[in-house]
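Researcher: Let's continue the batch. This sequence belongs to NAD glycohydrolase translocation F5/8 type C domain-containing protein, and it's 345 residues. Same format as the previous ones, please.
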Amino acid sequence: MGTSAYRGRVDSCVSCGAELGVGRFCLNCGHPIGSPAPAPAPTPDPPLPPTALVEPVEPVAPVALPVQAADPTPVAPTSPPDALRTPAPDVPAQRTDWDPREDLLPYEEVDDLDSEVPVRGWAWLGWVAGAALLLGLAFVLLRVLASDDVATEPTGEQTSSVTPPDASAEDESAPAARSEGPRGVGPRTDFARGAGFSVPATAPPTTDLDGTLVAYEASQMGDGNPATTWRTAGDATGQTVTVTLPEPAVVTRVGLVNGYAKQVAGVDWYPNNRRILSVTWGFDDGTTVEQTFAERPGLQRLKVTPVQTGTVTLTITSVTPPGTGPLGRDYTAISEVAVIGRRAG
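Model: Same format as before. Here are the structure tokens for NAD glycohydrolase translocation F5/8 type C domain-containing protein:
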């Protein structure tokens, strides 16, 4: 038997057709050697044109609608003859009209706020108290507006007694006083400004703590400056100061600053001198009125019955003891005098 040279058979992959080498799998696609070829993938159908996807629709005949007139008058629908009607089941009739009595809740059941129910308990006391407060405030305002007193300085403790007794009224706004007493003309004026002052004695000048020479002339009682003063030595009880007005006037108020109302270098000279506690005012017709003073350095005025006069006298009836301490002085002082009224007509 003859021999021939061996030539190995070259196989190809049944999946991809590549030549097979050594191993159990195709080196090209990894298909197992000896396994049948895989089934071919189905080929997709070509896409249909858009018109092929729409099914034809048969044309529908238009439905005849009832013809309306020019105005919005509804046309009654036509109904088939009685023989062709199908009996309808018993269904309750539906309302087409809107009835507020049935479609809305009754408002008296949800909105009743009991507005007519009276207030119970003690709540009425608040209303009574508020009304009383308003009445009191109105009364006070009426009293304030009715008064014509324009004094800006505190009046202090004041008492008055007028001679003769039948002229004792102090309120010049009272109808009786206006009708019986003089009235005067022109604006209200302080006639102490520019008046002449006659005094029993005057203390000599002194040097103040700041080195200023200070005089105590009587005219300084009418200069409008409470830091200047008339001063006399010792207790001036019983002494009289006469004020001669620039012209006759109808006087309605009098008053004074009852001590030395000056402060300098941190020292208040008001408590360091004697202060006047009371005086008696006199007028040309012989009437007098008394005034008492509080111990404070301000102008304290007193309303008097209107009296026409050209001179006013004030008689000192009571003073305090002299000041105490190293700055205490034994002098009686008046810083300012006020005589307020109108010119005599």
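Researcher: Any comment?
Model: The two ends are 185 Å apart (CA to CA).
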